[in-house]
Amino acid sequence: MAGRCAGKLALVTGAAQGLGRAHAKRLAEEGARVLCTDINGAGAEATAAEIVEELGAGHAYGIQHDVTNPDDWERVVEAADAELGGLNVLVNNAGIGVGGNIETCKFEDWKRCFSVNVDSIFHGCQKALPLMRQHAPGSIVNISSIAGLIASDTMPAYNSSKAAVWMLTKSIALHCAKNNMQIRCNSVHPTFVDTPILDGTARNHNLDKGVLMEKLARQIPLKFVGEPNDIANAVVYLASDESRFMTGAEMKLDGGISAM
Asked: What class of enzyme is it (predicted)?
């Protein structure tokens, strides 16, 4: 298939729903072969099945994956080699948010947030780079958040973990460049996006989803909440050779929030 990511071999974590599902589908639409992974294995397989239904057999595969487990990463990287024939795009999308301010946030929740949001990228890059080097040029895309650049008093664990993703990305980028791997690494920083996470937020605050969307939109200079493909289109750019001169950078997709 011709496309901006033709010939790319991609692994997308957290691909069962939301942003991960959008990333996987857009990469496949642009010619990549994709391994969809998620702790929800059935959801990852469902995303892959949608891609196969649209584009044909061999374009996508789904597999259960605990991104906090380094042994699971080894298994999944081996699956990428077996099913895709290699790996040269890694999209570290899996992530969670936890509530509580510095006085109320439970340490167990803090540790879980870092395990899913940060440790997963450490394990993933460490396990995937040997295979990616064999299929360079390549690209690592780490999904951070605008909350990794702009703080809030109500989410210290999430703020800190996503800031760690931002800086870890730069360290990985410099390591790959110094060793002439031809593998780039960049981070993406979205603000509010209309995914199932917002459905849960509406329920937790006893709000109608439409009311919540209006409240969030008022905080964004462009006055609307993002759609998953607004972020996935950026991932396509970073995965493609169009961004071959971009590494160690942060792409802010925040409707102008960080400009204020």
From this structure: oxidoreductase
